[in-house]
Amino acid sequence: MEFLIPGLRHFLVLGSILFSLGMYGVLSRRNAIGILLSIELMLNGVNLLMVAFARYINSDQPLAGQMFAIFIITQAAAEAAVGLAIIIAVYRQRRTIQVDQLDLMKG
């Protein structure tokens, strides 16, 4: 029953799939909220990879991956709050959150 124990390769594949799905979402979405959610998915994929590497690679600092993951989660929460505040402000002015219809910087 050794095939039921997940190894480093399983986590690498899962983290890469999460990151790839997030990248596809960023490149294909036209909705600003969907783009923010895709960025969060990319960050979660990176978190999974960092924790997996920290777990399976012996080092002097066994909790380094977990500490980096906590910092990324904190940064992602701040990014989501600021991003949603910007989206709400843009929606109040333009009545749309479609990225291709936003031309706020045009003179």
Structure in words:
The protein is mostly helical and 107 residues long. The protein has one domain (8-99): Helix Hairpins (Orthogonal Bundle), CATH 1.10.287.3510. Helices cover 72% and strands 0% of the residues. It has helices at 8-28, 32-56, 64-94. Helix 1 (8-28) runs antiparallel to helix 2 and helix 2 runs antiparallel to helix 3 (64-94).
Summarize the structure.
The protein has 107 residues and is mainly α. It has helices spanning 8-28, 32-56, 64-94. Helices cover 72% and strands 0% of the residues.
How many strand segments?
Answer: 0
Report the mean per-residue pLDDT as an integer.
84
End-to-end separation in angstroms reads: 66 Å
- The tally of structural domains comes to 1
Summarize the amount of helix as a percent range. over 70%
Sequence stretches where pLDDT stays below 50 over 5 or more residues: none
